[in-house]
Amino acid sequence: MSRFALVVTSCLLQAAVHAWGSAKTETAAAPAALVVSAPLIYLPFHCGNAYFLSWPWPYHAISRPVLVGYFLVQYIFEHFTETAMEYKIPFGFVTNTAILLILAFFVLCAIKGNKRHVGIAFVGFVIQSVVYVSLDYKVPMTYAEQLSGNADEVNMRGHLAGHAVFLIWLCIASMEVPWEAPKAKAQ
Is 176 left (phi over 0), alpha (psi -120 to 50) or beta? Predict the structure, then answer.
């Protein structure tokens, strides 16, 4: 449970610091607590994604740096879209890989951890996804849609809430997954 508290505390602290900094530049159109468009506010969430999604994978010396690197590319792709366009990062590759990694995470957690926790987290993730789409938040399919979504303050608030809730599901699913495989006892 300490992993969960650490992630939640760091995300709340980052959001509070951003909201406090926004209060100095508050406009009548957008109250300070609702301004979330700065890309750096999403960094702790992407780091949390990488942390939890890499937890059940074997060979941590290799898998963790690879997954952290991927999720940093995904962060740039999602929140610094113009940079991703400059480097010609393929849109479909990033989104499809993220979906596959999330599904693999749930499967690996079910194999190594508590299936009840994984089931609750997976159902919560599916419900979150359905609610997100049904509330008419933009799910980008092209770079143009990603850019317009990044410019829309309401969409970015939903995006931030989605990141926060997603971290909770990742934490619940990986709660009882051991860091290393149990060692065989000597006879």
Answer: alpha
